[in-house]
Specification:
Blueprint (H helix, E strand, L loop, with lengths): L3 E18 L5 E20 L4 E6 L17 H13 L5 E7 L9 H17 L9 H11 L3 H6 L2 E6 L3 E4 L6 E7 L6 H14 L11 H9 L2 H7 L1 E2 L2 H7 L3 H10 L4 E4 L6 E5 L2 H12 L6 E7 L5 E2 L1
Parallel strand pairs: 1-8, 3-4
Antiparallel strand pairs: 1-2, 1-12, 2-4, 2-5, 5-6, 7-10, 7-11, 9-10
Helix pairs in contact: 1-2, 2-3, 5-8, 6-7
Length: 309
């Protein structure tokens, strides 16, 4: 086999409940993940060494210069892990075509790692009698990063623990979204640290998070209006403190008829739920003309996880 290409989606957090800080430095989370039709593609080709190259997808304004091309890249870590499990040398060139925002709260790096797991397993494993199962890839993904297993799974799911232990969630129909990116990213550890600082400053004790019953019902019913009302992110106050301009972005989307608006994950990308595909297209155009975002674009979900092309 000369090349394997895998397409992998971005995610938006419909709910991100952040619990107490654990002894291992992580927080207990309840994460309702939703995969959306914004995709990176990772191609694995045989090579004489492990290398990573990155390019932007057509029409995507992504800061590819911020993506590491060294061994620190999550996709490279995934390739090394697959090679170790299969007892082969990690001799592969990984070509990443990015459309998912970099450091934007949509798990682009984790998505690339998931795609690399699938691509390298296909490149090096025996397709007739594979040694690595889908469950093996999920376990390996959790060792790389908390969001990697969901990028493999796709659809809609609740993640608990660090977010890596997943249960699929029934969702009816299709939901239409607009995502507004910001100029520059936000550090996920910095946003979590700011969340902890704000809670301490206010004398708040971190609650034990649980999945929203209203959110689950809205997903099951395919009720976009109810889903918009139930969207919630415990990290949003921290992201807005670190990047106050996001308040204007969220307000602009709400003023233009979004059913719901929130910062996606640790930000700074803002997510808006629209009434329909046409409304999403109109809302994206309006935000692009309002000078409140680097770029706004429409997408839909849920969509499948990492998929061989």
């Amino acid at each position: 086999m000369t090349a394997v290409t895998v397409r992998v989606p971005a995610k938006v957090n419909l709910q991100l409940g952040v619990g107490p800080l654990r002894d291992d430095g992580y927080h207990d989370l309840v994460n309702v993940f939703h995969a959306v039709s914004l995709f990176d593609e990772v191609t694995a080709v045989p090579a004489d060494r492990l290398s990573v190259t990155v390019e932007a997808a057509p029409d995507a304004r992504v800061a590819i210069e911020a993506v590491p091309t060294t061994g620190d890249n999550l996709a490279a870590r995934a390739a090394r892990l697959v090679a170790e499990r299969l007892g082969v040398e990690p001799l592969v060139g990984l070509r990443i075509r990015k459309a998912i925002p970099v450091a934007g709260g949509m798990a682009g790096g984790s998505a690339d790692a998931a795609a690399a797991l699938v691509a390298c397993a296909r490149l090096w494993d025996d397709p007739d009698t594979p040694r690595l199962s889908r469950d093996d890839l999920m376990e390996m993904g959790g060792a790389i990063g908390s969001d990697v297993p969901f990028a493999l799974l796709g659809g809609t799911a609740i993640g608990v623990g660090r977010g890596e232990r997943l249960t699929p969630v029934p969702a009816s129909g299709t939901f239409h979204w607009v995502f507004a990116t910001a100029d520059g990213g936000l550090s996920t550890p910095a946003v979590y640290a700011e969340c902890d600082r704000l809670r301490e400053e206010r004398g708040e004790r971190a609650p034990w998070p649980r999945a929203s019953e209203e959110l689950m019902a809205a997903l099951a019913d395919g009720d976009a209006k109810a889903l918009g009302a139930a969207l919630h992110n415990d990290l949003q106050p921290a992201a807005l403190t670190l990047r106050p301009s996001l308040r204007d972005t969220l307000a602009a989307g709400r003023d233009r008829g979004a059913l719901g608006a929130l910062v996606s994950g640790s930000g700074p990308t803002c997510a808006f739920l629209a009434e329909s595909g046409n409304h999403a297209a109109d809302l994206a155009a309006a935000l692009n003309g309002a000078d409140v975002a680097e770029q706004a674009f429409a997408a839909h979900g849920p969509v499948p996880g990492a998929t061989l092309l």
